[in-house]
Structures are given as structure tokens and as C-alpha cells.
Amino acid sequence: MAENGAEVVLFNHELSPAQERNLERHLQCRVVDRVALILDIFASRAQSAEGKLQVELAQLQHLSTRLVRGWTHLERQKGGIGLRGPGETQLETDRRLLGDRVKTLKTRLAKLSKQRQTQRRARSRNRVKTVALVGYTNAGKSTLFNALTRAGAYAADQLFATLDTTSRKLYLPGAGEVIVSDTVGFISDLPHSLIAAFRATLEATAEADLLLHVVDSASPNRDRQMHEVDKVLAEIGAGQVSQLLVYNKIDMTGAAPGVEKGEYGKLQAVRVSARNGAGLDDLRRVLAEILLMEQADGGGLPALPAESA
């Protein structure tokens, strides 16, 4: 720190409140752990009203475990008229106000979740199939989403560029119209509070007819990232949803676009480049085949574990 003139120290794993407090005392600067950093990135990326509510809820839930700093002004008792009751410390007041805000946010998010459930029921009555794009953060989901639907959703070479679920109609020759949804990217060691806060957004994933698991095929950590995505999918109740692997960024690996089939000709993966459009026609054709097969027999493509890829 002294050599580099650092003002903030980042830790790439979760710190307990006591660890964070002791490190700040010793280093005399702000200490940020992995969870706080992810929350800061989320806060800077949230665009919609719901996304901002979800980020604030996650931040407050994280902060609630940090309201034990040991700073003297938090322990002074102040009685009197107003928000603070007789003999209530500043720390107790902060906790109470924080708890009230958390309750308010959860109520507002629950209302938004009900609205989305109503919309999904309407689509279900109209028998419109839904496809959700999932994958590790920065795998190219939004770029692929834009290439398929011409939606113009925000896409950038950065972590968590997408926080809000965006849905658009896509026409597939032979299969008709489907609803395609772009979702928040996953990451390893994602805090449970974040998964809980974003559960409303992730409902689109759990209730989809098919998941397109977008993989950054150029990443050296590809297999580990696929495993982490499957782990989060299981946590949010989407582990049993039919899944198709989409190996993206083949323009960076030199692989040829095409379809990969396993034993007995079963579809396993499609190789594409969302950036230059290579393999997208194959992906549309495969999507139509899968959805038509589901309409015919109620079955579909089984979820593929990362290890089988």
C-alpha cells in the first residue's frame, strides 16, 4: 500500500465483518471484499427501476451485517422526540431504519414479480414458447440477443453489463413466434443475498421452455464457468429446464460454425459468433427443431451437465 499509494484494498473473497473491521484499523484505509465489489458494479449498471430496487435490497442486506463497526458515535444513547426512542443508540436506530427500508423494497419487488407472473400466464395461454439466454458474465449473451432479435440491448465487454431481464419476440421459420429473454450473467461464488435479491429477475430463467447456455469458448476457464452456471441454475430451481449449449466467440478461437451432435444424433451444442453472425442460421434452425419437437411430444432436449460438453 505504501509503495503504490493505494487508497483502497480489494480482497477477492468474502470477508466477515470482524475481518473487514480489523483490516481497516490496521491498514487505515477502506477495505472492499468480493461481495461489496460486485454490489458496487451492480449499482453502477442498474438501469430499470426494478434493477435499482434489487441492487439496493442486496446492498442493504449486506450492510446490515456491517453495522457493528465499533465507532463510538454509534453507541451513544440519545433519547427524545422523533425517530429515536428513549435510550435507543444510534446503532439500534440505524438497524431499525434499515430493516424498515428492506421490508419496503421486498414489498415493491413482490408486486413487480406478480405483474410478471400475470404476463407469463397470458403468454402461456397463448401457447407462446419462451427461450432464456443464460451464461457466465461477459460470455456474450447480450450481443447474441441483439443479433437474434435486433433488440439493441446494451452490450459491452464488461462484467454485469446486463442486470435487467429484456424480452423480445423472435420469429422462427416452422416454429412461429417465441419470446427470447436476456438475463443477468452469473459468476462464481455469487453471494446468496444477491441470488435472493435477483430471484424476481431470474424467474424468467426458471420458467422458460428452453435455456440457451451461452459459453465464452475463447475463455481458458470455460469448463469452470459452465459448472458455476449450472450450479446457480440449480439454486434458482432451473436445473431441470431443457438446455442447449451455445459456444460463442468462435471468431476468437478459429473454430468453424456448426452443430455438434452426440450419441444417436442428439443435439448437444451450436458453435456461433454473435459478433460477426457466423452460425446464427444454424442456431435458429436448431431452435425451431427443438421447439417443434417439444410441441409434438411434450419432451425436448435434456439439460446437459457441463462435464458432458
Task: Provide the fold topology.
Blueprint (H helix, E strand, L loop, with lengths): L7 E3 L6 H11 L2 E3 L1 H12 L3 H16 L25 H36 L3 E7 L5 H9 L16 E7 L3 E7 L9 H6 L1 H8 L3 E7 L5 H14 L7 E6 L9 E4 L5 E5 L8 H18 L12
Parallel strand pairs: 1-2, 3-5, 3-6, 6-7, 7-9
Antiparallel strand pairs: 4-5, 8-9
Average of per-residue pLDDT values: 78
Order of helices and strands: EHEHHHEHEEHHEHEEEH
Tell me the total number of β-strands.
9
Q: How much helicity do the residues have?
A: 40-55%
How would you sum up this structure in a few lines?
With 309 residues, this protein is an alpha/beta fold.
Describe the structure.
It contains nine helices and nine strands. By secondary structure, it is of the alpha/beta class. The strands form two sheets. Strands 4-5-3-6-7-9-8 form a seven-stranded mixed beta sheet, with helices on both faces. The chain has a two-stranded parallel sheet with strand order 1-2. A hairpin with a 3-residue loop joins strand 4 and strand 5.
Key terms for this structure?
single chain, 309 residues, alpha/beta, seven-stranded mixed beta sheet, two-stranded parallel ribbon, 9 helices, 9 strands, 42% helix, disordered C terminus
